[in-house]
Structure formats: C-alpha cells, structure tokens
Write a structure and sequence with these properties.
It is built from twelve helices and twelve strands. By secondary structure, the protein is α/β, with parallel strands linked by helices. A six-stranded parallel β-sheet has the order 2-1-3-4-5-11, with helices on both faces. Helix 11 links the parallel strand 8 (245-248) and strand 9. Helix 1 (7-14) packs across helix 2, helix 5 (75-90) crosses helix 12 (297-313) and helix 10 packs across helix 11. The protein starts with 6 loop residues before the first helix and ends in a 7-residue tail after the last strand.
Length: 337
Amino acid sequence: MAARPRIKDVAEYAGVSPKTVSNVINDYEHVSDRTREVVREAIDALGYRVNIAGRQLRQGRTGMITLAVPELDVAYFSELARHVMTEADRRGQTVLLHQTGGVRERELAALHGFDAQFTDGVILSPLSLNPKDLATRDRRLPVVLLGERPAEGSTDHVAIDNVRAAREATEHLLARGRRRIAVVGGTVRGRQGTDRLRTDGYREALKAAGVPFDSALVVPVDAYHWKDGARAATALMDAEPRPDALLCLNDHLALGALRALYEQGRGVPKELDVVGFDDIEGSRFSVPSLTTISPDKEEIARAAVALLLDRIEEPSTGPLQDHVVGHELKVRESTGG
C-alpha cells in the first residue's frame, strides 16, 4: 500500500515550501491566487487529505460535541438529534449523544462536562435544572441550551417563542368556535418552563377573546408520553362539563388523546378539536392527521451548532445569544383542516 501523501510531498510537487502549503490549507489571506491554485492542484493530484485529528490535537480540541436530551424515544428529540448530527457533520464535528432522562443529576453532569476529556462543548435540552445550577456551572465549557431555560442571561439559548406559538394555536381553536379548551400537560404554577410558557400563551389568547380562564381545564401530566395523553383525555371526557378542544403540549400527548377519544367513540373534529406541539413525523400519519405547532427543527440545529462552535473558537467573545427560531401552525384534519 502506498504511503499517504504528506504536506512536504505536496510542497515538492507544487514547487513551494511546506509553510506555503499549510497557509493554503488553512485559508490564510496572504497567499497569491496563482500560488493557491498551484497548491490546490497538487493536493488534488496527490490525493492529499488534511489530518483533522492531528490539527484538532494541536489546537487542544477533540472535534466532538455533546448533545444531551431527556428522552430519545420522544420523537421530537430523536428528530432534533438527527438534525444536530447532520449539521455537526457538515461542520466537521462528531456528536456524542446522551440521554439524561430529565434527571437533574444527569443534566448537571452534562452541564459540567461529564465527557470533558472527549468533548469541546455541550448542547443541552434541560428539564430539571434551576437558576443556581447555571450560575455555578463551569464556564470554561461552552454550553448552548435548547428549549427550556431556567434563568435569563445564563448561557446561549435557542428556542421557539413558546408563548406566541401556544397563543396562535389557541386562537385557531377559538376561531373555530371552541370555548372550553383544555391544556393537556399545562401548568399555572412554578418557574417559566416550556409547559408554563405555553400555558401563558393559551391564557393570553383566552383573555384577548374575552373567554374566562378555568384552571380545571389545565391538566398536568406525569410525563409527555402517549399513555399520559390518553389518560388525561379519558379523565376530561368523564368530567362535566366536557371540553370542546384539547391543546396538547406535545404531539405524543395529542396522539395518545386521539386514541382515547377514538376508543370512547368521540368524533374528532366533529365533537372536539385536538392540537399538538412539535410536528413529529407521526402527526402526519395519524387518523385524523394532527394539527400541530411545527418548530423549525433544522434551524434549531443549525443555530445551536453554530453558537456552540463560535464559543469553542472564541469563548469570551460577544454577549450571550438568545436565538428565537420560527414556527408554523400546521392545520390538519384534527381541527377540520
């Protein structure tokens, strides 16, 4: 097997110094266009490939980033992970994937770099962290938070506008004449997590429409799984008066609710409407297909990876970023679409 070409081989072929070849590879400015062209032709002719691992080692980096999410069997997180890995690969990075289970100790471990010897930074979707956790984190490790953020100005952050998204979903239901709209997975207490923000958006829409808020229609859940949505829908339909719409705070809850309503013989959308959040692939294949808030998951991934790599390159440059990603209400059959 022929030896792998080295920089000095490229230099000899091109008739330049190894330093000039290195300058071209690293895209330094002070190289003439003609020299740059000659070196690139030599690289192509010899089949030279940059030793990325060696370069990263010299820079004190691993070329790996960590993505830590609560649950990979919740489709939103698995779909998001795919987008993050695609974007990281495009940027020459490898992703270490960790499942925290939403457990504070494991989220803390991610926040402080449980793979610090292997990873250059962390993208973390937290459920259980509190403001103090972020205030005391090791700031030498770049971190970007997704979704829920326990404290303002604590770290770079990427999310949709959850208040606005929930308000738009509720306004859609109100425009269809629904007035007893239940929030499955909502909360009216506690810190400003995703569930609270989405409930706040729901309440804003009700207030603007002059519809009284009824706390009995805000139904917390143990987890955001199919069975929890089914259980909540069953309980709501057993109560009096029944809701005429369900705003479910993720698609798993909504799909579970659809199943429970089907088993009870409830017509969707004839008797009541159902709306979800996240636009997971399954939402397009349910019967009826699910109206849902669709966050731009590709843009979330792009923004998170870009922010993290910027911090890895220049850890102390610029203010913390709060990147708000767009969303869209996808109207489908569960609300008459």
